[in-house]
TrEMBL record:
This is Adenylate/guanylate cyclase domain-containing protein. The keyword Nucleotide-binding does not apply. The keyword Membrane applies. SMART domains: CHASE2, CYCc. Pfam families: CHASE2 (PF05226), Guanylate_cyc (PF00211). GO terms for molecular function: adenylate cyclase activity. Residues 460-594 form the Guanylate cyclase domain. It comes from the Bacteria. The chain crosses the membrane at residues 342-361, 366-385, 391-410.
Length: 709
């Protein structure tokens, strides 16, 4: 018992070590710098997997509600076409007339929009359009004057644009701003915010930077004097709100069906110039009082579209989402390598410890697998709750993956070592029991237990015996004879296994085998397999005898008997030692049939039950009906066919013998003997016929009664 406990403890320690190596390898791959392409690729896959989980959680939990004090006026298809407005209304309004021309419209349109919205009481007017080049002097002047009249309310747009110049492989940026006339004189210039968003590697925008510098964009050291704010950042400054520093992960406001696309759905900018719309939809401008109004392109032709976790939305909508997140504090905190290195590493080390402990303590595979799955579910549930309640994003895929790597590697090690051990035990087991018994016990223990407990089966039983082995053992060299016997038995057993038989036991130089006791099967298939095995055994013996005679050793002669009948199959033996076997009348009769091969001087005798099961397809001939001592029922015996013509003559002679015409039968069998001197069955029946012709047996019914075993 102590030895078994020591072995089990040692195996658990090894499993724990393997689990540690597997999970620690994942951590090492994640911690190492991504200078190597393979490491970089692996780390990217892990990050994307966690990002995918986070996206799902954030979509389910949702973000802040859409703010009612924010309005988006979109330059949509309706604004660009103008076909749904009464032509007379358009003809009577110069601004509407300008909006029927090809975009970009005259800047006087935006001057009019600023005046109209400002007069309506709008808190801020954000124009998400680029005015970086001069157009018509009067139009530019109109816009500059309108901005000057409401400079405290207007925010214009700038953008970081690629210069096309490479610096060490990196693209350089420059800041594109509106023309100077729109900024105005003095220190209180018009506010202006950049419109850029930086998507992640998969093209989705998840985070926002409210403030940056041109040097930072170009990957160089920067100064605070260079600070540039985004559109959302400038709106926050105008509202007197703090501007978040660094890159912030957003929680987007989402609609139930259309995701983020239905949030801040654009209203047509043209509608504010249509009198009926201004009155009906905007209450003569009261709708805009104290609201932040953003004007920007929303028509598909502008291609100002951005992919987010809530779907594809327009640039102006994305700015308003960023603004909402800032006003509501709707951010998430990722516990990843980039944002929280210490916490990230601690979580991975906890996953390593869990894999080691789980692999060492839980030894039953099913319990271990179910428990490991349960742990993964708990981690997933906990990470979901953290995201939903505290807005903390745990890299759940990486944590679970670290644990799974260690656990799976430990289980694989356990499986491999167990299979190797089972294979070794299996090979050892085969040395002591039949190969198919060992295979069944290892492959399907439940099936073996059901069979071993005992049941009645119809099986084919084979006995084979070496003739005169006992007398030879007295005169031969023991070592040489044992080697020869082992060679013979090995060949015979291989043939039994080749034909699907079960080796029951060796009885000295005799072999006992059977078909049909261990597994379910058709007895016709079993009978054919047994007959084929017997034929192959005789052919193999001829090959061995030829080899042995060339080596100067005496050949073997064997007799093989086959019978099909009902037996009791199961494990038989004592409490200390048992073996799978069959017992019953059919076994005894098969042994007696094998013994009668000596009387008939033939190598093989097969009972009629076996022949009937083969549907007569076996190349055998009947040699008569025998009643063995101690058994009332006769058994019909068959042996190998020698020649079709001789078999026919043999059948005629046998019919005479069974009818009681012994004299004629004796002559017929003697004639067969002369034609085939090695026909042992003809010789035996010729003798019986001659004896019975002198003294016919009483009550003759065609069956020979054996007086001894």
């Amino acid at each position: 018992m102590t030895s078994l406990r020591a072995i089990t403890r040692k195996r658990s320690v090894r499993k724990a070590l393997v689990a540690f190596l597997g999970s620690a390898l994942v951590v090492l791959v994640m911690v190492l710098p991504d200078d190597f392409p393979v490491l970089s690729h692996v780390q990217e896959i892990a990050a994307r997997a966690d990002r995918g989980v986070w996206d799902i959680v954030l979509r389910v939990t949702g973000g802040p509600k859409e703010r009612q004090d924010i309005v988006l006026l979109g330059i949509d298809d309706a604004s660009l076409s103008g076909t749904d407005v009464d032509p007379q209304v358009v003809a009577g309004d110069p601004i509407l007339g300008m909006m029927t021309t090809r975009f970009p419209w005259d800047r006087s349109v935006w001057a009019a929009a600023i005046d109209k919205l400002s007069d309506a009481g709008a808190k801020l007017i954000v124009i998400d359009l680029f005015f970086s080049e001069e157009t018509f002097p009067q139009s530019d002047l109109d816009l500059a004057e309108a901005i000057g009249r409401h400079r405290d309310k207007v925010i214009l747009t700038s953008a970081f644009s690629e210069t096309g110049v490479k610096d060490g492989g990196e693209t350089l940026y420059t800041l594109i701003e509106p023309i100077p006339e729109l900024f105005g004189p003095g220190p209180d210039q018009t506010r202006c915010g950049f419109a850029n968003f930086k998507p992640d590697d998969d093209g989705k925008v998840r985070a926002v930077s409210y403030v940056t510098t041109l040097s930072e964009m170009n990957g160089r050291p920067h100064k605070d004097s260079e600070r540039v704010y985004s559109l959302a950042g400038e709106i926050l400054r105008a509202l007197g709100k703090p501007v978040p520093e660094g890159r912030q992960e957003m929680r987007l406001a989402l609609g139930r069906k259309e995701g983020a696309r239905s949030i801040y759905a654009p209203r047509s900018v043209r509608s504010i110039f249509v009198p009926d719309d201004w009155k009906r939809n905007y209450g003569e401008g009261s709708f805009f009082k104290d609201k932040i109004v953003v004007i920007g392109p929303t028509a598909p032709r502008f291609q100002d579209q951005h992919a987010t976790i809530g779907g594809v939305i327009t640039g102006p909508q994305l700015h308003l989402q960023a603004l909402t997140c800032a006003l509501e504090g709707a951010y998430v905190r990722p516990l990843d390598k980039q944002h929280a290195t210490g916490t990230w590493l601690l979580l991975l080390l906890c996953a390593v410890a869990a894999a080691v402990a789980w692999s060492a303590w839980i030894k039953r595979p099913i319990v271990s697998a179910v428990g490991a799955l349960g742990l993964a579910v708990v981690v997933l549930a906990a990470s979901y709750l953290l995201a939903a309640k505290a807005f903390v994003l745990v890299m759940v895929v990486l944590v679970v993956g670290t644990f799974a790597a260690g656990w799976i590697l430990a289980q694989s090690y356990d499986l491999v070592t167990e299979r190797l051990e089972r294979g070794r035990l299996h090979r050892e087991f085969r040395r002591f029991v039949s190969r198919d018994v060992a295979d069944t016990l290892v492959r399907d223990p439940d099936l073996y237990r059901g069979v071993a407990s005992g049941r009645r089966r119809r099986v084919v039983v084979l006995f084979s015996d070496v003739r005169g082995f006992t007398s030879r053992s007295e005169d031969s060299d023991p070592a040489e004879l044992v080697a020869q016997l082992n060679e013979y038995l090995s060949r015979m057993v291989d043939i039994v296994f080749k034909h699907g038989g079960t080796l029951d036991k060796f009885i000295g130089d005799a072999v006992m085998a059977h078909w049909g006791a261990l597994e379910e099967g058709d007895e016709r298939d079993n009978a054919r397999a047994a007959v084929e095995a017997a034929g192959d055994m005789l052919e193999a013996l001829d090959e061995l005898n030829g080899k042995w005679m060339d080596e100067g050793r005496e050949p073997f002669k064997i007799g093989v008997g086959l019978h099909l009948g009902e037996v009791l199959a199961g494990e038989i033996g004592s409490r200390e030692r048992t073996e799978f076997g069959v017992i019953g009348d059919a076994v005894n009769l098969a042994s007696r049939i094998e013994g009668m091969t000596k009387y008939f001087a033939v190598p093989l005798l097969v009972s009629g039950a076996v022949v009937d099961a083969t549907d007569g397809n076996a190349k055998l001939r009947c040699v008569g009906s025998i009643r063995v001592k101690g058994r009332h029922e006769p058994v019909e015996l068959h042996t190998l066919s020698r020649d079709p013509d001789l078999d026919e003559a043999f059948a005629v002679a046998l019919a005479l013998f069974q009818k009681g015409e012994f004299a004629r039968a004796a002559e017929a069998f003697l004639e067969l003997q002369r034609a085939d001197p090695e026909d042992g069955a003809a010789s035996r029946l010729a003798k019986w016929s001659a004896d019975y012709a002198v003294e016919p047996p009483a009550g003759w019914d065609g069956t020979v009664v054996m007086g001894s075993k």
